[in-house]
Structure to design on (300 residues):
């Protein structure tokens, strides 16, 4: 008795490329129209979006001259000063280090004051501002934008501060619809940061000098007085630096210029991606629909 020849096996759901191609050709007009409409819609949306420009300023934090050496000198002579009835505990190193400078550049206080001084609320919330009446339009919530709202918008969507860990350089970027405003805001924020930390250091140094003068009057011990005078000399040098240096916390390596090219939207890329997405959606719809039309009882 001969063994029957094995029959070839065909999977029920085996992919048939010819069948898929026939299904696509049958609905090719739908695929083409869907692809074109998706590309056109994406292109129109990208064209209607407000162009955003990016202005950058490259900064070098100034940190070398910001330590006055008070901690070291005060610590060396702290015991001797204590025996003489003089306290040097009220001293701290002057100036502003790198992390403080960067934090100040991004700080809420500096940003909110900048927004108020420049009257940026109507600019940041122009959709809610009536230019003719010079007043806020009525909103559903009945609330008008506040300076805190403006800070959140500015901090999350307008200003970016990044630090290169290798070089130590800091980049301040402003992204805004008006290229000139973007460049002006970047430069102004750096200037305000320098002025703020310069004045803060000047006040702190003056307070420390007055404190040292007070302590010097309380002792007649020569060694302690010499230490105090050394500390005062360092503080006076720091005070002089704070007066003459315009770039106190940040030195501008590459200033902000008015950008000529927008950073977004990337209209060509958006249109291409929209067209591609429309094509794949149309192909998927045609294949799924054909599958159900040919096998209406087929379980999903």
């Amino acid at each position: 008795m001969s063994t029957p020849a094995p029959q070839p096996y065909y999977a029920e759901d085996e992919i048939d490329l010819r069948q898929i191609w026939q299904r696509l050709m049958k609905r090719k007009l739908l695929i083409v129209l869907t692809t074109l409409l998706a590309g056109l819609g994406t292109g129109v949306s990208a064209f209607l979006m407000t162009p955003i420009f990016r202005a950058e300023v490259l900064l070098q934090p100034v940190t070398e001259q910001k330590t006055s050496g008070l901690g070291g000198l005060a610590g060396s002579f702290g015991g001797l000063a204590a025996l003489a009835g003089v306290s040097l505990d009220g001293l701290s190193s002057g100036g502003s280090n790198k992390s403080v400078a960067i934090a100040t550049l991004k700080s809420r206080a500096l940003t909110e004051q900048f927004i108020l001084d420049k009257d940026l609320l109507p600019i940041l919330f122009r959709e809610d501002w009536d230019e003719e009446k010079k007043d806020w339009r009525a909103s559903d919530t009945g609330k008008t934008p506040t300076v805190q709202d403006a800070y959140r918008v500015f901090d999350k969507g307008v200003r970016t501060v990044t630090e290169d860990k290798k070089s130590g350089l800091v980049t301040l970027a402003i992204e805004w619809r008006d290229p000139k405003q973007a460049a002006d805001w970047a430069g102004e924020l750096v200037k305000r940061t320098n002025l703020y930390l310069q004045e803060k250091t000047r006040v702190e140094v003056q307070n420390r000098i007055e404190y040292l003068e007070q302590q010097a009057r309380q002792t007649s011990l020569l060694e302690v007085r010499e230490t105090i005078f050394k500390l005062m000399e360092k503080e006076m040098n720091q005070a002089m630096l704070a007066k003459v240096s315009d770039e106190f916390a940040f030195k501008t390596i590459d200033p902000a210029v008015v950008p000529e090219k927008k950073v977004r939207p990337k209209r060509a890329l958006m249109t291409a991606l929209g067209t591609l997405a429309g094509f794949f959606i149309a192909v998927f719809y045609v294949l799924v629909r054909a599958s159900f039309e040919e096998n209406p009882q087929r379980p999903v």
